Amino acid sequence: MHVHAYEKIWLALAVVLILLLIGSVTYGAVGPGVAMVADGQDTIDPEALDEDDRFADPGVEQVGENAYEASVVAYQFNFDPDPIVVPAHSEVTFLVTSPDVIHGFQVVGTNANTMVVPGEVAEITVEVGEPREYGIVCNEYCGAAHHGMEGTLQVVPEDEYEAEHGGDDE
Length: 170
Ligand code: CUA
Known about the structure:
Elements (H helix, E strand, L loop, with lengths): L4 H26 L22 H4 L3 E3 L4 E9 L2 E3 L3 E4 L2 E8 L5 E5 L5 E4 L5 E7 L3 E6 L12 E7 L1 H8 L5
Parallel strand pairs: 2-5, 4-10
Antiparallel strand pairs: 1-2, 2-3, 5-8, 6-7, 6-9, 9-10
The protein binds dinuclear copper ion.
């Protein structure tokens, strides 16, 4: 069977389009900064957050030379802690959970945006740069004061953070 040249071109284009489609879907699912609520995710008893090391006293902890872990409780209708204070030019991994209903956790202006489900620990990592302030919003309807559920992420200069948190001595 003879296949015309232009048919071959269309066939090749179709294959390329299919590959592009698969590529973009894959990128959307596993690309940088994209987090999904997945099976096998860290689970937790939402009734007993105060018995969990991370969430009994939520806050920011240094976990590596330039890496910090921020445990955050999203509840009706606030984030704890508020503000979340981290040093500039660091990698911050947020661990977020809820004791009551489903909330959202979006750090406006970054790629951090996740659903917070009671019983699960949402994990999302953000590289922060220069000192500045970011707003944090809940983007899942969670009750009467949902629209007012806001928090703050404060990125402060490294020396300021060190001064307040005692650097490695803590
Ligand atoms: Cu919390 Cu909406």
